[in-house]
Structures are given as C-alpha cells and as structure tokens.
Amino acid sequence: MVVNLxxxxxxxxxxxxxxxxxxYLSFHRVALADLRRGVFPFxxxxxYRRIFADPLFLLSLKNTLLFTAVSVGAEIVLAVAIALLxxxxxxxxxxxxxxLILLPYAVPPIANGQIWAFLYSFDFGFLNRIxxxxxxxxxxxxxxxxxxxxxxxxxxxxxxRTLPFAILLIHAALEGIAPEVYEAAAIDGATAxxxxxxxxxxxxxxxxxxxxxxxxxxxxxVFEEVLAITQGGPGDxxxxxxxxSYRRSFAPPFDIGIGSASAYVLALVIGLxxxxxxxxxxxxIE
Amino acid sequence: MRPSRxxxxxxxxxxxxxxxxxxxxxxxxxIGSLQSEKTLRADTRAVLxxxxxxxxxxxxxxxxxxxxxxxxxQATYLPDNVKKIHYALGNSTVIAVSVTLLTLIFASLSxxxxxxxxLRWLEWLMNVNVFARFVxxxxxxxxxxxxxxxxxLLNSVWGVIIAETGFLLPYGxxxxxxxxxxxxxxxxxxARIDGCSRFTAFLRxxxxxxxxxxxxxxxxxxxxxxxxxxxxxxxxxRAEFMTLPVVIASLVGDVxxxxxxxxxxxxxxxxxxVILVLLLQKFVVRGLAAGAVKG
Lengths: 286, 295
Prior knowledge:
Chain A is mainly alpha-helical. Chain A has helices at residues 5-26, 32-37, 46-53, 55-86, 93-100, 103-106, 109-120, 126-133, 150-175, 179-187, 192-219, 224-230, 241-250, 256-282.
C-alpha cells in the first residue's frame, strides 16, 4: 500500500537501520581516528569483552537496576494511593490535585533535572531553605554530595516527572470498576482495607503489570536527570547505563564501538521485556 | 458512601501533600527566576526574596547584545549559547511543529490501512510499532550520529525533524489504528457509494470523525518533540541549531550561569508544553491510556 510508504521508510531509516547498524558498530573499532578515516576495522567481541571487564560498566548496570527498582516500586505505590485519593469525589481538594496531576508530564526532563539541581543545591537550594524556614534543620544538608544517597536523591525527580502516566492509567482502571462490586463487599461486612485488598487491588492487577513493564523499560534508560543533577558523581556513584553509553561515545575516549556495545546490552535487556509485553500483555487486554 | 468527618479531614490533608509535591519544583523555578543572582546569593536561608525582578527573562529579548550582561551584577560574561537563545526558541518551535504535522499525516495514513485492510503483514506492522516504543533512544542515536555525519545532516534542523518523526510514528499508529477501527465501516462505505475514492473517503469521513484521537496524538507528539533532549543534543552542537533543552544541557556546570537565570530559561522551556497540557488535558489523558492499552 502506497500510503504506508512514509511510515515504512521512516521506520526503516530511523529504527530498523540504526538498530542493525548499532549491532554492526558494536563489533567494530569506531574510535575518533577511525571515524575520521571512515574505515571501521572488525574486532569481533572485543568491545563486549572490554565493557564486561570495565568495573565502571558493571557499576553502571548495578546502579541502573537499583535506580529502576526503587523508582518504579515507589511510583506504583504512590500512583495507586493518589489515584484512590482523587477518585474520592466528596473531598473537594481532590479537584485541585486532579488538575495538577498531568503537569509534570509536560515539563522537559532536562529542565526538571536543572530545577531539582537547584532544589538540592547545598548552598543556595530551596529544599534546605524550606527546611530552615520550618525549623527542621540547623545546618544545610548536602543532598546529592553523599555517594551513599546520591542515587536515591536522583529517584525523586524521576518519580515526580513520570508519576502522571501511572496515576492516569490506574485512575482510568478505577473508574472502570462497577460500584456494585463495592456495594456487594460492603453488604458482606468488609472493612475499607479489606475492600481495597480483596476487591480493588486484584482488579487493578492487569494495569499494574502494564505500568510495571513500561516504566521498568523506560527507567532503564534514565539520562536527563543524571546529566543535570549529578553528571554521574560524586565519584562514580550515579553512573547509569545510558550515561555510560553517552559518555563513552561522545566524551573522551570518544569510542563509539564501546558506546554501541554497551547500548546494545541495554537494548537486549529491554528487548526481552518488550517481547514479553507484546506476547503476554498487549494482546490480552482488549 | 460519604466518608466520615475524620476520614475527610485526613483525605484533605493527603490532597494538600500531593498538591505540594506536584507544585514544589514549579514554585521553586518561579521564585528562583523572579530574583536577581545577587539576591539569591545574599541570603541563603530565605524562601522568598527581598526584591522581585523580571530581569532574568530579558535574556530572550536581548539577541546577544552585551547590554543584557549588565542585568547580572556578578556575571559580566554570558556563554554564547545563552546570548543566542532566541535561536533555540525558534528551532524548538520549528522542530516541534514540523514533527507534529509530519507524524500526524504519516501515522494516520498508516493507521487507516491497519484498521481497514485486514492483511497479515499489517498485523505484523502493528506489533513492530509496539516493539519500537521500547527501543532506547540512546541505542538509535549512536548509529544515527555516524550516519548523519556521513550524510552531512549534523547541525541542521532537518536532521532532528527526520529522526524525531521516525521515533514518534509508531506511537501514532498505536493510538490511531484502534480508534479508526472503532468507527463504523458503513460510513466510508456510504461515502464510496456516493463516488468517493478510498482516499477521499478517508479524508472527508474518517479524519473529521477522528478529531479527538488526532488531538490526543498531536498533543502528545508535540510535547515529546518539544521536550526531547538526546536527539538534538547528539546531532546539533552549534548554538544556531540548538533547541531549548540542548541549551539547558549545555549549561550544566557552567559557572557563568547562576540558578536564577537558569530557572528563567527552564520556565520558558516548559511553558508551551505546560500550556498545551492544561488546555488539552482530556485529550492527553486519553492518548496516554490508548497508547498503553489496546482498544
């Protein structure tokens, strides 16, 4: 079909071709000098061997896993709580919350990162200013300067920015639950907690799985907040996978072969999640 | 069932907490941007400044004139990227608008065939589109950089438009195809009996009926394209071709740009997409839900 041509061409040009070309690059030496010459010597699995021998790459993977587990876990709990909160229509403040929920979705991730860099700033930051004003702290807290907590500090801006998506999906699922279900549970004498645990939560399970898979695969590629807030520091404490690929490719040593190999490892992990999503979830929910 | 009074008070409190959480970064950016660098440095414990000023926003009007530097009493020097930030505002607009229009056209054509023609390869195309959403941009950007470098498409607005259009097309097919499929087929059959071709039936019947879905997808694409950092960051590094997110990224760790000016730039960079979301909230919500779950 002729009308599918633009889609097919762009899909091929900016998706299929780069994916296969990235695989090609990952098996070749593509350092700055090779890039200038335009000839990339074949090196087999050398790039992969080098990244798995690089402690920084392994640390980046570990940090990515930790970051993803904390942010996605917290996000789902918060999203269920806030979605339940805004579906209680007898509380008028819920209307204000409902209007604000989508706001973070519109904020450019890099601007979000800069704003949180400001919030977290040791000398000038707003978080310390607010805590001073409330009389909670006496001396400023160094939010992102501590290697033990810097990665956790990065999860909060990320959760803030990506929470709308999860809340919206859970809210939509809640609206879809028939009121009779709750009435029946109430007649049976179930408490509010029992209604939530035995009625609401099981009915939300499919959408929670959708959010879990989508958010996990997106959190694996966190980049902007790292760039704006910590640039991987202090030390190497907040190096994550996408940051590793970016830095290896576009900062010294400008090694695009290494960058491609590390990005490919990330893509394979996410690819497995995607295959599971297409096969198990996307088809079933109709 | 109306909750009891203590429960309602607890729920009000929870709502206030949620509101405070959602507004915290926005309020911080606003308060930070409305004061001079001097005020912000002078008192490191004050939440609200002694003096308010709009000076930081003037950087968008100065067009590189040195006089803009006098705004900042400590900073006599401003990086080139900041002086040329009006270029970035223009590039961001041109790129986001072009990507939105191009993806709307291509995706609706594709989605229509997926919805109306029951061919096996189109079902396969649909699965590819779901799969494509998962591919990390960083994986695509490294080879695209090598390729665009060879094609001499680095440092151009077109390179970014082509790349982003490709990245966002699959999402459009995902949102639009189920919507088109749900429209009664009798409508375009009636149009075809009246002498329309398949294409004019699509143009005159399906498209007007699909305004809500097109608005959903258009708004989402505009926001993603406007906010995208990695594509223009890797492809364009000259101030004339940067977008606002790239300028913001280029100033990370720059000692000449203090938080107060930075917050003003961030607020301008988020304004169009925030306004769009507030105006088209209903459509954005539907689009996000439709993209995640079939039907």
